[in-house]
C-alpha cells in the first residue's frame, strides 16, 4: 500500500476551520489517528485539507464520516487524494 492510499482531500471547509489547522485536525482525529494535515485557504475564504492518516482503515473511516458532514454551515466534500489530482500533486510537493 502506498502512502497516497492513506490521504483524503476534504474540500469546502468553512473559513473558521480553514484558519485553524489544529481545530480541523481535531475533527479528523475523531475518526482515526492522523499522521499529518496540510490546509490551504482559498481566495473565497473556504479551504481544503489533505489529511494523511496512520493507516488505510482510519482514512476510510474519516472518508465515510466526513463526506457530506455539515461543519460550521458548510457541507464537506471528501475525495481520495489520488482521485483529486490537483490536490495530490500539490501535496507531494509539500511532503
TrEMBL record:
Keywords: RNA-binding. Pfam families: RRM_1. SUPFAM superfamilies: RNA-binding domain, RBD (SSF54928). It comes from the Eukaryota. The keyword RNA-binding applies. The keyword Isomerase does not apply. Residues 6-83 form the RRM domain. GO terms for molecular function: RNA binding. This is RRM domain-containing protein.
Amino acid at each position: 500500500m502506498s502512502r497516497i492510499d492513506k490521504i483524503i482531500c476534504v474540500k469546502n471547509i468553512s473559513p473558521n476551520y480553514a484558519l485553524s489547522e489544529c481545530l480541523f485536525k481535531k475533527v479528523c482525529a475523531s475518526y482515526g489517528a492522523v499522521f499529518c494535515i496540510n490546509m490551504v485557504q482559498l481566495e473565497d475564504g473556504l479551504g481544503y485539507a489533505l489529511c494523511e492518516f496512520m493507516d488505510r482503515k482510519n482514512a476510510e473511516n474519516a472518508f465515510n464520516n466526513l463526506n457530506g458532514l455539515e461543519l460550521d454551515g458548510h457541507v464537506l466534500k471528501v475525495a481520495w487524494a489520488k482521485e483529486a489530482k490537483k490536490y495530490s500533486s500539490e501535496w507531494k510537493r509539500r511532503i
